[in-house]
Amino acid sequence: MLREYLTKETMQHADKMEDWEKAIAFAADPLLKKGVIEKSYIQEMINSVEANGPYIVLKDYFALPHAKAGKGVNEVGLALLTLDEPVDLKGNPVKVFLVLAAVDSTSHLEALSEVSELLMDEEVYAIFLSGNHEKLLNIIEKGEK
């Protein structure tokens, strides 16, 4: 399931970002270009953090930007941005932004469960932080065979 959403086309790497808002927008750009999300969804994700604080930071250096399911989302999608230098997200340094676009409250749960499993493995988590997308894609492929 995860490999359907997280592909070379939806993964990006950058040295650094000016701020967390730009990082979220940059991370979501592949989904915008594919028509998975509307531009309004990017602002919804930013507004959600502004309203609710840094709840999207799930683990040290790892954030899962998302907003209300279905609002500005055309289909389920994931996009990954890894950074060499962490960006401050309301007091939390973040190097990995995994954007989640959900059309409803359930269709994305299997992919999210797979992401959770990957994050619990410290070796895999280190690969996320390293920004090695090729290794990450290999792990995602192996996890589904």
From TrEMBL:
Membrane-crossing segments per the record: none
Name the record gives this protein: Ascorbate-specific PTS system EIIA component
UniProt keyword Protein transport, yes or no: no
Pfam families per the UniProt record, alphabetical: PTS_EIIA_2
CDD domains xref list: PTS_IIA_fru
Function: The phosphoenolpyruvate-dependent sugar phosphotransferase system (sugar PTS), a major carbohydrate active transport system, catalyzes the phosphorylation of incoming sugar substrates concomitantly with their translocation across the cell membrane. The enzyme II UlaABC PTS system is involved in ascorbate transport.
Cell compartments where the protein resides: Cytoplasm
Lineage of producing organism: Bacteria, Bacillati, Bacillota, Bacilli, Lactobacillales
First-listed, main subcellular location of the protein, grouped into a coarse class: cytoplasm
Organism whose genome encodes this protein: Alkalibacterium iburiense
Span of domain PTS EIIA type-2: 4-143
Keywords: Cytoplasm, Kinase, Phosphoprotein, Phosphotransferase system, Transferase, Transport
UniProt entry tagged with the keyword Calcium: no
